[in-house]
Amino acid sequence: MRDAITRVGPHEERVPFGDGHLIRNRRGFRPCPWAFELARFAPIRSTDRVLDLGCGGGILLCAVGQVHGETTLRVGVEFDRAAADQARRNLAADPFGPTGVLRADVRSLPLRPQFQVVVSNPPFYPAGWGRQSAHSATAAATHALHGDVNHFMAAAAAALTPGGQVVVVYDAGQLPHLLLAMADAKLTPRRLRFLDDDRGKPARALILAGRDGAGLTVERQRFAPNEGGTP
């Protein structure tokens, strides 16, 4: 039964991922290479419920498990049917506590405040912006075809318990859009870390926000080869 759950499809491959493995597509979009950076950045406790909005193949939730160990619950929400199935199989192979994946649209998802931590790697670009992939799953991962950053932050805010926190990885060049979306959702940024690429330029930004708090800490992390592939 376990082999059936963690099967690898004809267009997929199983690749090393930290201390374990990850099922991903052979071609097209590669899952978030900053997953372990986000997991280490997120202040997650064993008693927390963790929600990933737009979880794709489950890479962030798998990284959270490897970095923080067992938690009360990890849940992913994903619109794409194939990606949601892939996430279920990846999480089925991971031993770090109960998990679940819900196939749903963040724009219409009824959420209650029951998660202490919400993580997300939402699409960065508006539909039709720049060079959009002809491959639907790749396009949906990078462009807001099924909800933009405003929808993701509104959903994150709705899911948070009092004192809960949102942790997002986002394109550094698009950061103003994320900050405005957080403000609209009444989320206050508390900590910001820029992640450099191999050219020494900020490529991505990690940001932690909550419903309260004041003051913003700004950090910068220099590029380190393969750093994103280790827990």
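(ticket continues) Second input and output from the same batch:
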Amino acid sequence: MSTQQTPMNRLFKVALRLLAATAVLAVAACGDSDTTPIRNGDTPLSITGQRLATANFVLGAIDQREMDGPADYKLGSNDRLRIIVFGQERLTGEFVLDGSGNLAFPLIGQVAANSMTSKDLERAIAGKLDPDFVHSPSVSVEVVSRRPFFVVGEVQKPGSYPHTAQLNILNAVATAGGHTYRARQDLYYLKRVDRDGNLYRVRATASTIVRPGDVVEVKERSF
């Protein structure tokens, strides 16, 4: 029996390969190939949304840190601070926390400011200055600008943007130019890093609060 392939046979095999490849792509588009772990219980909601019982049912427990005001804001990498040591002009100015959330401050060197509040950092600086450098210093710490958030996926202008208080996903997407026509608008993901440096995701809706440093993922919808 001849093993020579006819043009029709070759065409048929090519068509089968194309069909198989199309099927694989379709499954990949509909599925979620991201292996980043999902933590449902860490999903924050908008402060204007439903109360705790509804929040727990829909998206998991509210993260209390997202309900905090400016005084309770947890400092992190790339936050810009205005620090004043009253009566000490050389120790007064604006400082940016490094990638690990550390503050490089005159005279006292590195201060591990990550996850501190402004008040915590005030006490830490004062404690390191007194008594060797400044006696009973009065220190003020103000957050000038928070670390940025990021928007990726099906938006017009993916990238990093300055964070503002009470920012939710709808605002974040609008800041990035809005959805593309392919965007799914009923489910989003937020990628963030916990205090131990572990990357994870949370499921989100348009009203979910976005933290500084979060990555907002806008997925492609299935057609």
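Agent notes: The domain at 74-145 is CATH 3.30.1950.10 (wza like fold). The two ends are 46 Å apart (CA to CA). Closing as not reproducible unless the customer responds.
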